[in-house]
């Protein structure tokens, strides 16, 4: 189970594109949350809500427009020497959505996996390097015969395993998984999710799991954040979010997921979300407020009291 | 129930450099009037190939319908010439594709793409076709249809684009609509809207739908009946309740238990081990046998026939043979069975 020690603190993170132009996009607009050591934080929302941008900004694939990301208390986006940056890159790794596009088709699997090992000089000899690759392949359920093949020789699920092995090669502490299972078949999704859970247990990894498949997110996550138009609108422990969704957008999102249960489907009533329902006036301070320990909702002071009363019932 | 489409013993092969890939190996199903039949299965199981065969959309150069019939209104579509098929495609049978960005022509205004089938099949004048197209755009829930008529696909969002694709498919009130993963590329909230739209339109124009998907949640939402495909065959078919609450084939068990429900707790998900069969060298026995922990000796030697479970429910597994040993399905499946019995008693 997750501890309460903060591994990452994201404070007022902003990521704008086309700053100062007419088509400025506020992809991530002032969001703050913490990620605890050893937990899986799920991030859900519709496409375009900024969940992938959040992940990419955290790992410094984009330079943040504002705000800071503290990793073990150190600012990720601050000025860093090359050595510091390298050390940071080793601790934080990413798994991408499309395993076809994220593996270089002209490199052998062994070289793909060992690229990080080479960059960080983790292997003492050629033999050591190969042994590490084989060990990694076995960790993710492949075997040493696979080392000398090219990505096109693998199925989608196997390719995603290679992506995971590559991320693990540099012994990271924190992994951002950006829709790691969306491109896979249902029967293969379960294999990859089980693998990720097993690795977390064995290696004490921390995950940021970005997805739009809500039943899988609930299954893998300890806590879940819901994003809407660049804002984090609700953040709560997974069970709590599903049993007591507070923000009207979360309610609408949850009511839209079809479940593999015909009887439930016949009775499911979909709620729609209209941002106008909040009716915020200009002097309302709209921010994340804690409704109940660990359960945060973006709301105004008036709504806060309303939600709290609602929760008490 | 009146049958509108019958597929009988369909075999389809692709000729590739490495040999003959037997993508479809004896598929049988009926489509009844006004119903939604969902076909589920993983990629490579043959669900899209089946639907493309019905539409005559398989590549002529390397695909071949080896045997079997596709009966629609007394005609065998499998033997129809391309010319004759053109009179049916888009009029009596039409199709919605997965990705609305690639299935619309980016250089043509949306309006023209909708009036194309109307002018071709209903022989309306351009003015009358335009009137009809605007009606349909309105029907599928696109605001300002007159303005939207003159716009290009890139000016539409993903959900709106899929509505346009649906509008084109429904332009001639087809008797059969084939939807190949119509919501896979869409967000859950948009998906919910599109599914609601399809169900409402189905009632209005009384069409039959073949709905291809791998999302079991969507199946539970839209389907009247479900056919489960594996390795180029249908391994189980039944009403949606029968397949979800009383599944018989071990592959269906695996599919259902590998999806977490909202009350799945910390236990490990059931994952079907291994990978799908290589249809270049299809196995002699049951294609699922190597991944099946309930497999018996006969599974490796002989393909199981369809065993009858009820009048509407059939499954191809030797476990249903009267002499087969009794096995316990996985816990997740047993839970569903109990739920089903509870439902029956409740009624």
From TrEMBL, chain A:
- Signal peptide start and end residues: none
Instruction: Fetch the SUPFAM superfamilies from UniProt.
Output: P-loop containing nucleoside triphosphate hydrolases
The protein here is known as: Oligopeptide transport system ATP-binding protein
In this chain the ABC transporter domain maps to 8-254
SMART domains (UniProt xref): AAA (SM00382)
Q: Which GO terms describe its molecular function?
A: ATP binding
Pfam families, per database record:
ABC_tran, oligo_HPY
Q: Does the keyword Magnesium apply?
A: no
Species whose genome carries this gene: Anoxybacillus andreesenii
Q: Which InterPro entries match?
A: AAA+_ATPase, ABC_transp_ATP-bind, ABC_transporter-like_ATP-bd, ABC_transporter-like_CS, Oligopep_ABC_C, P-loop_NTPase
Q: Which PROSITE patterns match?
A: ABC_TRANSPORTER_1, ABC_TRANSPORTER_2
Entry keywords, A to Z: ATP-binding, Nucleotide-binding, Transport
Please tell me whether the keyword rRNA-binding is annotated for this protein.
no
Q: Which family does it belong to?
A: Belongs to the ABC transporter superfamily.
Automatic annotation (TrEMBL), chain B:
Q: Which GO terms describe its molecular function?
A: ATP binding
Compartments, as annotated in UniProt: Cell membrane
Top-level lineage group: Bacteria
Q: Does the keyword Protein biosynthesis apply?
A: no
The answer on whether this UniProt entry bears the keyword Signal reads: no
Q: Which residues form the ABC transporter domain?
A: 5-256
Q: What membrane topology does the annotation report for this chain?
A: Peripheral membrane protein
Keyword list (alphabetical) reads: ATP-binding, Cell membrane, Membrane, Nucleotide-binding, Transport
Say where the protein is mainly found: membrane
Give the matching Pfam families: ABC_tran, oligo_HPY
Region: Disordered; residue ranges are 328-347
Please give the family membership noted in the entry.
Belongs to the ABC transporter superfamily.
What is this protein's name? Answer: Oligopeptide transport system ATP-binding protein
Instruction: List the lineage, top down.
Output: Bacteria, Bacillati, Bacillota, Bacilli, Bacillales
